[in-house]
Amino acid sequence: MKRETKKILAEIILIVLVCSYNKMFIFALIWVFLHEITHILVALKFGCKFYNIEFHIFGMKAELIDIDSLKENQKIIVYLSGALLNIVLAIFFYIINIKYDSSFIETSMNLNIGLAVFNLLPAYPLDGSRILEVILSKKMLFKKAQKIISIVSFSIAALFIIISAIIYIFLHSLNLSMIIGAIIIIYITRMEEHTTMYITMSNVVKKRNKLLKNKYIENKSISVYYKQGLVNVLALVDRNKFNIFYILDDDMKLIYILNEDELIDALKVYGNMTLEEYIKRKLIIS
């Protein structure tokens, strides 16, 4: 199963778990689908494209193209749109519930409030983690931003487990939904950590699409010590900019200029080696 598919399915499972306690489960699924469809419609409005949409027993899988070519505020709007729809629906059902006493209306109101709040939690794979990722990536490197989100995700998972334990100890009731939710958050967070390098490498293609769409892309230059490994340099790549690395020796002399496209090619061809070894190899070949 593809990494993105796992993340989407995990998000749907987490959302459904929030609703599973309720006997009107089928209506909960409707609000989940509307939540996901809202993401799609808003993304399409900003010019993104979907190349595969499937409906199956697990929910809905939608693979999105070009979301990384969007501006930061557009990404946030896309990620927020599902929760905003749930908030609007909750307000609508609240107003209707004032005049009409119906278990369906009251349940739908509560479900939409729960969906909105839960989805905005800053834990993988929920929308809140993507919003936080966009905000942090504007101020720091993607790898550092991801590390912070991972810590927050693990903390939320731990909180779920602690709350479940407290409920079991004092109320003698086992909340499987929270435990399963915690397990899924931990699993997806670990998967995000293990794929950091591949995410960074794939961002080169996404930045190319951004360049073609906007006709420009910002540059970022950074000076790096020549004893550093290529993977360590890759961790310094800013996912939203074209990166240029100035390689300095012990005397602070510039000995080489390395662009991110060459860095990716070097990792593909040679694997991880120090910048010093790579430069020597380049000199031998030339």
Automatic annotation (TrEMBL):
A Gene Ontology cellular-component term: membrane
The record's keywords, sorted A to Z, are:
Hydrolase, Membrane, Metal-binding, Metalloprotease, Protease, Transmembrane, Transmembrane helix, Zinc
Predominant subcellular localization, coarse grouping:
membrane
UniProt membrane topology term: Multi-pass membrane protein
The cofactor named in the record is: Zn(2+)
Q: What subcellular locations does the record give?
A: Membrane
Which Pfam families does the record associate with it? Peptidase_M50
Q: Where are the transmembrane segments?
A: 12-34, 76-96, 148-170, 176-192
One MF term from GO for this chain?
metallopeptidase activity
Q: Which GO terms describe its biological process?
A: proteolysis
Q: Which domain of life is it from?
A: Bacteria
UniProt domain Peptidase M50: residue ranges: 104-158
**Record family assignment:** Belongs to the peptidase M50B family.
Q: What is this protein identified as?
A: Site-2 protease family protein
Phylogenetic classification of the source organism: Bacteria, Bacillati, Bacillota, Clostridia, Eubacteriales
